[in-house]
Design a protein that fits this description.
By secondary structure, the protein is mainly alpha-helical. The chain has ten helices and two strands; from the N terminus they run ββαααααααααα.
Length: 192
């Protein structure tokens, strides 16, 4: 059952969504974080305290109230929201009108760069960045195909003398062409 509470004139569900993918995790976590103050207000209401003391107290109620009062829980949740925020932002950008296949890899690499900045700044020292990098790589490999990498390499801003093509993308494109083009001349012509 979803508890609802009025807080600052707004009725809010204390728990709103179900976690499915990274973008949804962000929305779910952000929803819970946004409900911190209403949840704390709810947890100290007389009717809730009375229910805690009653014989009919729901099994999970004491644990829910313990978590709501736990400052370290909210700190960890804030960290999770901050780490997932770039994924959510770039996911929204990827779903914008007019965005084509050529920007899929670019969006993934933007998330990676943002996380590298966070890691380098030691913004969240408790985050297991090596684990996140491994998960990221597995997801990137699963969700992108050669066509995404080729399309990224053929974007106007990644071709020509002013190319901003990251070395990792170029290496992936080279590997693809090397497999597809058996003749050395065809291979060099494709990359020129």
């Amino acid at each position: 059952m979803c508890q609802r509470t009025r807080w600052n004139g707004v009725t809010r569900a204390l728990i709103r969504s179900v976690i499915t993918c990274w973008g949804s995790q962000y929305n779910s976590f952000f929803s819970v974080l946004r409900s911190r103050d209403p949840a704390r207000d709810w947890s100290i209401r007389k009717d809730v305290r009375d229910e805690l003391r009653s014989q009919d107290c729901p099994v999970l109620l004491p644990e829910a109230i313990r978590i709501i009062k736990d400052n370290s829980f909210w700190l960890k949740l804030e960290t999770a929201v901050a780490v997932l925020k770039p994924v959510n932002e770039f996911r929204h950008a990827s779903e914008a009108d007019g965005v084509g296949i050529a920007y899929v890899v670019n969006r993934w690499l933007q998330v990676k760069r943002k996380w590298a900045e966070m890691r380098e700044a030691d913004q969240f020292p408790d985050i297991p960045w090596d684990d996140i990098d491994a998960i990221f790589k597995a997801r990137l490999d699963k969700q992108t195909y050669d066509m995404h990498w080729i399309a990224d390499a053929l974007r106007p801003d990644t071709t020509g003398s002013n190319s901003k093509l990251p070395p990792s993308v170029f290496a992936r494109v080279q590997e693809y062409f090397r497999k597809q083009l058996k003749d050395e001349n065809e291979y060099h012509r494709a990359l020129s």
